[in-house]
Amino acid sequence: MGDATDRRPPDVTVVTGPSARTERALDASMELLNSIQRDTIDPEYAAVASGGHGRSRAPVLVVVIGLIAGLMFTTSGLRGGLRAADAVSARTELITQIDQTEQRIQELRAQGNQLSIEIEQIEREQLGDAHVLSEPDLVWSGLISVSGPGILLTISDNPKDANGTIVDQDLREVANGLWLAGAEAISINGHRLSARTAIRQAGAAVTVDYRSLTTPYRIEAIGDPGALGSAFTGNSGGSWLSFLSRNYGVTWAIERRSELLLGPDAGLGVDHAGVA
């Protein structure tokens, strides 16, 4: 019989001494890795999930802040909508008042024209023609309506160029050019010109005796249509319009008319002057 050690199975190894300690140390390391894998969640998160308090106040605080912010935005939007509605209402009311005032002014001007005609008739009947202005004086002063052949001059702004907007100086140059060409009576957009007419600028609008005009500008002038048109295009008035057309795109055209009717200047009257 051999030694007992010879009967051990060939695949069994007995570890003794320092090697045994090494095996136990490896088992402890594996236990640490297994613990990390099992407990991957932070203990504090685990406490919250299990019903603890932890950070449970944070979601409630977020909800409260969201509600307050939403309430503030809603209130601001409602106030802005009310202000906008008030502004629209005020603008509409103001436009209505302006339209009513302009209509009333037109009615008063018509009444003034009728009263001027009646006064003239009474003066002629009671005082005679010696105390009434002569017909040429009445025409030049713009106190009576006049009719006759002439020209219609239409001037339009250039909407694509701010420099192509007609201003008061442009209309003054045109009016002076028509007077120089021999016009006997002139009106701009229905407003009669006289020796005392003021053509001014009021903001973006041109005014004739403080009555606003709008583009296109229709300038009627009574006189010989052929001679008046030729003389105007050749003098300073026509040159001024040609300059505006070439440089700023202003458009203008002259039409001959066999009959024009120009009303009196309702804004002006002669109260103290008379024939000497």
Keywords, separated by commas or semicolons:
single chain; 276 residues; alpha+beta; Alpha-Beta Plaits; three-stranded antiparallel β-sheet; 52% helix; elongated; disordered N terminus
Quick take:
It contains 7 helices and 8 strands. The chain is α+β, with helices and mostly antiparallel strands. The strands form 2 sheets. It has a 5-stranded antiparallel beta sheet with strand order 3-2-7-1-8. A 3-stranded antiparallel beta sheet has the order 4-5-6, covered by helices on one side.
Structure write-up:
The chain has a domain at 146-261: Protein of unknown function DUF881 (Alpha-Beta Plaits, 2-Layer Sandwich). It is 52% helix and 17% strand. The protein contains seven helices and eight strands, in the order H-H-H-H-E-H-E-E-E-E-E-E-H-H-E. A five-stranded antiparallel beta sheet has the order 3-2-7-1-8. A hairpin with a 2-residue loop joins strand 4 and strand 5.
